[in-house]
């Protein structure tokens, strides 16, 4: 039976077994050749994957990305896999991260996209090597998880944007987040794609198989049936995973708190969104004052908690009497504590991206300082070096990272606070849920990215987090998209970009935990270990041959 690379694979499960590739170094001295169709296929796979993310939102296309990469690198050597993975990564990350260069020019965008693509180059090389092993689709999927774990942790804290799991905001694979978090959803997407890479050629061969050899045709049909069944088993598992989960109602699962979300908007988009810092603060004060009037008139329910976004007060209310007076005044009018996103001066030459619980009676109280400032956006390491490439780095006032987990008691609600990009990091989200948060809040400011897909991509992450931990998620953005997300990942309320908005919703404070919450990073480390073990097993024979050759030569 012919494999995807045109090789013979014996047995009824030939699509999943070790193929005898003509370019396998163990089987033939001829080196593997990288054909143009492989490069084209890798590029098309990256494009298909980006179309699955918010913007296009064609979620079902996500599996075609891993499928195309698996087919492109099948039977190739490590170096060819590196090239094909790089092509795939550039085709994916350049459009996905285009919002990073919307106001600062192409250099930061291209540099970040290339850096992220280099990780997928490593994935391509590793996938090529392990494609000669039995059960290669499983090792391919585990390597995807390992690659995302690497990309999300190392070098300045990593940047795990664009993980496969974050594309699945609908459909059966989403529910796997409650059992193994984002890594398990990524595994499911990659495994489905890899199984498709095995099934499609098997089905094609079965359809056009030799009509004169009935036994061979039966074996081909049997192999194709097994391959198709394996592909369908992954989404079926997702459907079954949904059944035991609790409903997605905002008010189910615990005592409810009335939460108000304020999106005040900004004077202008872009890097100068806060050039009129007082106007941004006034916008949020004004929208909250309108809410207070509506509550007094009986048109809105009395909120227990009011959530303002990140950067809603870029004027430090601790040292600016006017800002302090305005926030305190509107808190008394609305008769509820306000979670204010403020930029606070200090310590020393630094500033702190701080969430402040502002009580209507006692004023500023508990705080949370952002634990993971964004490198080159909120602080600049090696500033003199990066200034060579762009003088824009000097517009960045370095932020100091906080050290305390963001669990805050606000109006009787235990709120797990995450500021902007922190929602993308598994560990930061795990920390607030483990700390007792009954709901999650994402305070964010996306004004610097204009009318791009960044806000929608970030909202998708919040939807995954809701399912992962069985918590409602409130997203408060200065300029949008603000949203209220139920524990089943559905969006109950959402705003438009650069339009003021106010939401008031009853939200349950949940204390139950999902399997994913209890396991934490365990599934990711386990799957990473599986992928690395498969890679070691694939490399071991070649290493052993080289050692023997050197010994003989000596």
Residue fraction in strands: 5-15%
Between the first and last Cα atoms, what is the distance in angstroms? 42 Å
Average predicted local confidence, pLDDT:
89
Shape: globular
Number of domains: 2
Low-confidence stretches: 1-31
SSE ordering: HHHHHHHEHEHEEEHEEHEHEEEEHH
Helix content: 40-55%
Count of runs of 4 or more consecutive helical residues = 14
- Cα-atom radius of gyration: 26 Å
Structural class determined from secondary elements: alpha/beta
Number of DSSP strand runs: 12
Spatial order of strands in the largest sheet: 5-4-3-2-1-12
- Largest beta-sheet characterization: 6 strands, mixed
Oligomer: single chain
Structural account:
By secondary structure, the protein is an alpha/beta fold. It folds into 2 domains: 14-246 and 522-553, no CATH class; 256-372 and 406-511, Nitrilase/N-carbamoyl-D-aminoacid amidohydrolase (4-Layer Sandwich). The protein is 44% helix and 13% strand. It has helices spanning 36-51, 64-73, 78-96, 106-130, 136-151, 177-207, 214-242, 277-296, 321-334, 383-386, 426-434, 454-469, 515-519, 522-553, and strands at residues 256-263, 305-307, 338-345, 351-359, 363-369, 407-410, 413-419, 439-444, 473-477, 483-485, 491-494, 501-508. It has a 6-stranded mixed β-sheet with strand order 5-4-3-2-1-12. It has a 6-stranded mixed β-sheet with strand order 6-7-8-9-10-11, covered by helices on one side. Helix 8 (277-296) links the parallel strand 1 and strand 2.
């Amino acid at each position: 039976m012919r494999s995807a690379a045109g090789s013979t694979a014996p047995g009824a499960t030939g699509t999943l077994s070790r193929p005898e590739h003509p370019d396998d170094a163990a089987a033939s001295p001829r080196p593997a050749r990288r054909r143009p169709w492989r490069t084209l296929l890798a590029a098309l796979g990256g494009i298909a994957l980006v179309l699955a993310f918010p913007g296009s939102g064609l979620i079902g296309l996500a599996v075609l990305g891993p499928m195309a990469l698996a087919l492109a690198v099948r039977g190739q050597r490590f170096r060819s896999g590196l090239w094909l993975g790089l092509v795939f990564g550039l085709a994916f990350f350049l459009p996905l991260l285009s919002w990073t260069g919307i106001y600062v020019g192409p250099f930061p965008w291209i540099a970040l996209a290339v850096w992220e693509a280099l990780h997928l180059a490593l994935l391509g090389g590793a996938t090529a090597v392990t494609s000669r092993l039995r059960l290669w689709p499983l090792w391919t999927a585990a390597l995807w998880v390992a690659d995302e774990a690497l990309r999300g942790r190392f070098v300045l804290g990593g940047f795990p944007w664009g993980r496969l799991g974050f594309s699945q905001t609908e459909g059966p694979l989403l529910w796997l987040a409650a059992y193994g978090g984002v890594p398990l959803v990524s595994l499911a997407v990659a495994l489905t794609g890899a199984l498709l890479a095995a099934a499609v050629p098997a089905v094609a061969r079965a359809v056009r198989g030799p009509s004169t050899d009935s036994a061979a045709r039966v074996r081909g049909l049997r192999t194709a049936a097994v391959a198709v069944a394996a592909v369908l088993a992954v989404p079926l598992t997702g459907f079954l995973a949904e059944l035991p989960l609790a409903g997605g109602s905002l008010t189910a699962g615990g005592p409810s708190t009335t939460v108000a979300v304020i999106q005040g908007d900004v004077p202008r988009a872009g890097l100068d969104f806060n050039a009129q810092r007082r106007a941004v603060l006034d916008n949020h004060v004004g929208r909250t004052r309108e809410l207070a009037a509506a509550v007094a008139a009986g048109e809105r329910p009395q909120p227990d908690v009011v959530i303002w976004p990140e950067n809603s007060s870029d004027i430090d209310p601790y040292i600016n009497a006017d800002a302090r007076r305005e926030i305190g005044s509107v808190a008394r009018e609305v008769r509820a504590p306000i979670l204010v996103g403020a930029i606070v001066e200090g310590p020393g030459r630094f500033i702190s991206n701080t969430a402040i619980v502002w009580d209507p009676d006692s004023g500023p109280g508990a705080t949370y300082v952002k634990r993971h400032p964004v490198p080159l956006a909120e602080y600049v390491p090696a500033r003199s070096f990066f200034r060579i490439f762009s003088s824009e780095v000097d517009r960045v006032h370095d932020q100091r990272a906080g050290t305390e987990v963001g669990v805050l008691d606000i109006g009787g609600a235990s709120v797990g606070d995450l500021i902007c990009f922190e929602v993308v990091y598994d560990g930061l989200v795990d920390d607030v849920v483990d700390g007792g948060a009954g709901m999650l809040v994402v305070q964010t400011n996306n004004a610097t990215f204009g009318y791009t897909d960044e806000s929608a991509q970030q909202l998708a992450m919040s939807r995954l987090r809701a399912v992962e931990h069985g918590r409602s998620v409130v997203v408060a953005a200065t300029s949008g998209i603000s949203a209220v997300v139920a524990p089943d990942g559905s969006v109950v309320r959402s705003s438009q970009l650069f339009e003021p908005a106010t939401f008031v919703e009853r939200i349950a404070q949940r204390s139950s935990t999902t399997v994913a919450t209890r396991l934490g990073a365990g599934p990711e480390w386990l799957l990473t270990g599986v992928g690395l073990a498969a890679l070691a097993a694939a490399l071991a024979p070649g290493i052993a041959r080289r050692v023997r050759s050197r010994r003989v030569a000596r």
